[in-house]
């Protein structure tokens, strides 16, 4: 069975082809235009998807050596995400489904992230924990088996990527902030500024990053422009360190609480080198298996949507043309497609 996957939930236009669960191609266009606005502008994102989707689908098909006529089914993200951007992918998929007279399946974007790890590690066994750290989410999921997910941690306010982005803006750096902070943290002293791991009332596992953003704001307010510039390495290193330490702390606690010693990490923040370095140094020696999918599968991509959709189709599921884009779709609703 050949499945075409389509993903347009935010600012990545992506298409992928899988044959019998094997990934053949994955083509993604990241919209760089948003960097000048300090964040994703929904209207611009929708237009850009509309302009690019045809080319991206054609590229994915051509890289897979198959044509539209060979496709047996389409898997497409229908939430969560931005309403307008979701509609571009969903309506495109519905159009293809009608035109080619083949079924389509709506896929929950978060389920895609949970399965991204299996693209490179098909042997990664159940149960496992998945930490999803992106610009919109910071969560830990317990995955007992395919289709059985339980969220054990969430952020109470900002996501980890958002903390990087907002902190970067306060320090005068560009969007997206994560890579900028990582670059400027090189050679800086991570202990120079005493930021502390945020505690969350009533939960050992939940996250909170808004206090950290306030801390960097007040620290910078007490400094002149040139002081910020001359302390930029130390500021970035200290800020990055506390975010990374928070994530590591929650990995340890989640393992302790669930007794599950297998972790996969997904989302843009998984690209952070300091995070990966500390996982290697601190987490893995405690006999905790941690897997970082390769970067193109960590950030938004259609490969993970195609794989998740393939599993659902194998399960006998398809969607009807009535399927709506659901911006705040939760993973618990995954069975109601
Ligand atoms: O998963 P993603 O590409 O998009 C969604 O948010 O869905 O994640 C983007 C987020 C941004 O907040 C960005 O600042 C952060 O991931 N990010 C990083 C790094 N690369 C991207 N954060 C820390 N270090 C990085 N190297
Ligand atoms: Zn995502």
List keywords for this structure.
10 strands, 337 residues, 5-stranded mixed sheet, alpha/beta, 2 domains, Nucleotidyltransferase, domain 5, binds 5'-O-[(R)-(carboxyoxy)(hydroxy)phosphoryl]adenosine
Number of domains: 2
Distance between the termini: 21 Å
Q: What's the total helix number? A: 11
Helix content, binned percent: 40-55%
* Low-confidence residue ranges: none
Strand count: 10
Largest β sheet strand count, sense and barrel closure: 5 strands, mixed
Average pLDDT figure = 94
Bound molecules: 5'-O-[(R)-(carboxyoxy)(hydroxy)phosphoryl]adenosine, zinc ion
- CATH class category of the largest domain: Alpha Beta
CATH superfamily of the largest domain: ATPase, nucleotide binding domain
Structural class: alpha/beta
What's the helix-strand series? EEEHEHEHEEEHHHHHEHEHH
- CATH A-level architecture of the largest domain: 2-Layer Sandwich
Radius of gyration (CA) equals 20 Å
Structural write-up:
The chain is globular and about 65 Å long. It starts with a strand and ends in a 23-residue tail after the last helix. Helix content is 43%, strand content 19%. It is built from eleven helices and ten strands. With 337 residues, it is an alpha/beta fold. A hairpin with a 4-residue loop joins strand 6 and strand 7. The mean pLDDT is 94. It has two domains: 2-115 and 298-333, ATPase, nucleotide binding domain (Nucleotidyltransferase, domain 5, 2-Layer Sandwich); 126-292, Nucleotidyltransferase, domain 5, CATH 3.30.420.40. Helix 4 crosses helix 5. The strands form two sheets. The chain has a five-stranded mixed beta sheet with strand order 3-2-1-4-5, sandwiched between helices. The protein binds 5'-O-[(R)-(carboxyoxy)(hydroxy)phosphoryl]adenosine (KG4) and zinc ion. Zinc ion binds next to helix 3.
């Amino acid at each position: 069975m050949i499945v075409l996957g389509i993903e347009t939930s935010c600012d990545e236009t992506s298409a992928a082809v899988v044959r019998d669960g094997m990934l053949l191609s994955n083509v993604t266009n990241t919209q760089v235009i948003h960097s000048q606005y300090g964040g994703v502008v929904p209207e611009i994102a929708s237009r850009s998807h509309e302009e690019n989707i045809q080319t991206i689908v054609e590229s994915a098909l051509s890289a897979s050596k198959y044509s539209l006529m060979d496709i047996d089914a389409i898997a497409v993200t229908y939430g969560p995400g931005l309403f307008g951007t979701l509609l571009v992918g969903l309506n495109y998929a519905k159009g293809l489904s009608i035109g080619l007279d083949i079924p389509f399946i709506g896929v929950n974007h978060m389920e895609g992230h949970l399965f991204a790890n299996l693209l490179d590690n098909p042997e990664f066994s159940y149960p496992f924990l998945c930490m999803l750290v992106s610009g919109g989410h910071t969560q830990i999921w317990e995955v007992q088996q395919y289709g059985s997910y339980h969220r054990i941690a969430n952020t109470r306010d900002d996501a980890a990527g958002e903390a990087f982005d907002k902190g970067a803006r306060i320090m005068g750096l560009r969007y997206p902030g994560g890579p900028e902070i990582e670059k400027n943290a090189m050679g800086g002293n991570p202990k120079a500024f005493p930021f502390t791991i945020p505690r969350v009332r009533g939960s050992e596992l939940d996250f909170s990053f808004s206090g950290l953003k306030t801390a960097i704001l007040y620290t910078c307010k007490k400094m002149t422009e040139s002081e910020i510039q001359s302390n930029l390495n130390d500021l970035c290193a200290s800020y990055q360190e506390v975010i990374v330490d928070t994530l590591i702390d929650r990995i340890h606690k989640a393992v302790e609480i669930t007794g599950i010693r297998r972790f996969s990490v997904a989302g843009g923040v998984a690209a952070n080198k300091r995070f990966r370095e500390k996982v290697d140094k601190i987490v893995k020696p405690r006999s905790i298996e941690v897997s970082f999918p390769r970067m193109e599968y960590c950030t938004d991509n259609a490969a993970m949507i195609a794989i998740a959709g393939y599993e659902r189709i194998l399960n006998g599921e398809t969607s009807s043309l009535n399927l709506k884009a659901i911006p705040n779709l939760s993973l618990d609703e995954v069975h109601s497609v």
